[in-house]
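Weekly puzzle thread! Below is a chain. First person to post its structure in token form gets bragging rights.
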Amino acid sequence: MLFVVTGPSGCGKSTILAQLVKDVRSISFSVSHTTRPRRPSEAEGRQYYFVSEMEFKRMIKKDMFLEWAEVHGHCYGTSKREIAARVKEGDVILDVDVQGARSIRTLRKDATFVFVLPPRAADLRKRLLDRGEDDNASIRRRLNNAKREIREASSFDYVIVNDRLNRAVLELEAIVLAARCRAESQAAKIRAVLRSFPAAKK
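Winning reply:
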């Protein structure tokens, strides 16, 4: 199964996802590509694959992305190869921007879409300031984009308000577990149980 999680920059979705992957079996995080410079707290291949604009354009030309978008002046994309590799391990969860989620929705109707909200605009601004990785102009741009992005939250399957991290993690875990119990997700198990019954006598 494919889970797509999005929300405005600074809403805490990456922290929530990191804890989810630790807590829930058979789910892995799909690492996206970006042209954004690596922050001090980030590692290559863990949060993102950091590539040049030239390399990113080459990947677009070769149709290597499931989705890609330009956000806050940088490009972000989900590699088809990355998804294919992760699917072999079990369920896959993506951390993408709102544009990316919109693109995936047109391609993967079977995916589950989750929007993470900050409690208030002031909390979002504080989180962006506290992480100390963006200048004032970047923070203003991210806050302006956040208001526009949040207007799309009601079109998602689920919405999580990240006012308490532990609760937000539990809510996302509940969404994953519930999706795994959908009848369509359990089709193979249903057939297996039916086959376990003795054949009807003629």
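Puzzle host: Confirmed. Bonus trivia for everyone else. Strands lie at 2-6, 27-30, 32-34, 48-50, 65-71, 74-79, 91-95, 112-117, 158-161.
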